[in-house]
Design brief:
Blueprint (H helix, E strand, L loop, with lengths): L1 H12 L2 H22 L2 H32 L7 H12 L2 E2 L4 E2 L4 E3 L2 E3 L4 E2 L4 E3 L2 E3 L4 E2 L4 E3 L1 E3 L8 E3 L2 E3 L4 E2 L4 E2 L4 E2 L4 E2 L4 E2 L7 E5 L2 E6 L16
Parallel strand pairs: 1-4, 2-5, 3-6, 4-7, 5-8, 6-9, 7-12, 8-13, 9-14, 12-15, 13-16, 14-17, 16-18
Antiparallel strand pairs: 10-11, 18-19
GO molecular function: acyltransferase activity
Family: Belongs to the transferase hexapeptide repeat family.
Protein name: Maltose O-acetyltransferase
Length: 229
Amino acid sequence: MKDLSFCKKFTILLRPQKVLAMRLTVKKTLKKVLTFLGLLAVAKLILRIVRSAIERIRLSFFAFPWYLHNYIVAYIPWHFLRILSCKHLLGVKIGKNVFIHLGVMFVGDITIGAHCVIGRNCYLGGPIKIGENVSITAGTYMFASTHIKDSPSFEGYYDAIVINDYAWLGARSMVLPGVSIGKGAVLGAQSTLTKNIPDFAVYAGSPAKEVGKRSQALEYELNYFAPFN
C-alpha cells in the first residue's frame, strides 16, 4: 500500500502542470539568489551566449548537407553522383532524364519535372516548382525569398516560383519571388523577371517586358546527356 501511494504521488509530480509549477518555482528562487549576490546581469549575459551558441550549432548541422553538395559534390564531374546527392542529401524531387550541369546550387524546397536541363553555375533558391522539358541556361539565378523593403526589422519572406512545361530561360537571367512562367514561355538572356509571363510569350530586358510570341506547336523532349559535364 505504501509503495502504491508513493507511485501515485510520483505520478502526480510528473504531470505537466506540476512540472511547470516546479520549473517556475526553481526559476524564481534562482533569480532571487542571483539578485542577492549581484550576479543576475552576468547570468543573463551567459545565458544569451549559451543560447546563441546552441542555435549556431543547430543551424550548422542543418546547413551541412547543403554545404557538402553545393560546394563539393556539385563540382564533381560525374552526373549520376550529383543527381543522387540532390535527391538523397538535399531532398530535391527530380523526374526522369533530368540533366544538371556542374556547379548548380540548390537551396530550399525544389521540384524538377522530367526531361529538364539545368545549365552550369545556376542558383535555385526555393520553393521552386519546375515542369517538364524546361531548359534553364547557364548562370540563371532564381530567388523565391527576399526581404520586405519597409520592414523595421528587415523581415524576410518566401513566395514560390513556378516554371511550366517547355519554358526556356536564357543565360544569366534572373527570376524574382512569386513569379510564374507560362507553358512554352521564353525569358531572354540577362533579363530580370519581376512579373508573370503568359503561355508562349517571349520576355526580355531588365525589368523583362513582352517582346514577342513563341510557336505553340512544341512537341520536343529534352534528353540531353554529356559525360563528365
